[in-house]
Amino acid sequence: RAANADQAACIDAIRRDHDAANQRLEETLKQKTKARALQTEEVLRKEQEECMSALHLGLGQLAAFREEYESSARLLTSKIDSLRDHMKKELDHTISVVSADSKARSEAVKQEQ
């Protein structure tokens, strides 16, 4: 009986040691998992900051490009309007000259008859 009691006590001690070792292992695993999660979170936060920074930079460049494009479009529209006005004046002048010449020839023909 004493041998059985010693064996039982030994088995209990081994179980307690085993349970304590398992507990320490679980605690270590939780700590490592938490540390890894924090590292991953930090990496993701930095990547998000870099992406947001790049996005803001890109949006700034896009806004500047849009302003330049709109300014160029306004300038081009103004030049086209000026050219159209000039061409209309030239055409009106040419029509006026041709019309006057045509009337003069018509009058000359009438006087010859």
Helical fraction equals over 70%
The fraction of residues assigned to DSSP E strands is under 5%
Radius of gyration: 48 Å
> Secondary-structure element order, as H and E?
H
Number-wise, the strands total: 0
Form type: rod-shaped
Please tell me the overall pLDDT: 95
**Oligomer class:** single chain
Report low-confidence residues grouped into runs of 5 or more: none
Structural class label: mainly alpha
Report what the structure shows:
There is one protein chain. With 113 residues, the protein is mostly helical. Helices cover 98% and strands 0% of the residues. The protein contains 1 helix and no strands. The longest helix is centred in the middle third of the chain and has 111 residues, at 2-112. It is rod-shaped, with a radius of gyration of 48 Å. 0% of the residues are buried. The mean pLDDT is 95.
Keywords:
single chain, 113 residues, mainly alpha, 98% helix
Short recap of the structure:
It is built from one helix and no strands. The protein is an all-alpha fold.
Write the layout of secondary structure elements.
Blueprint: H1 2-112
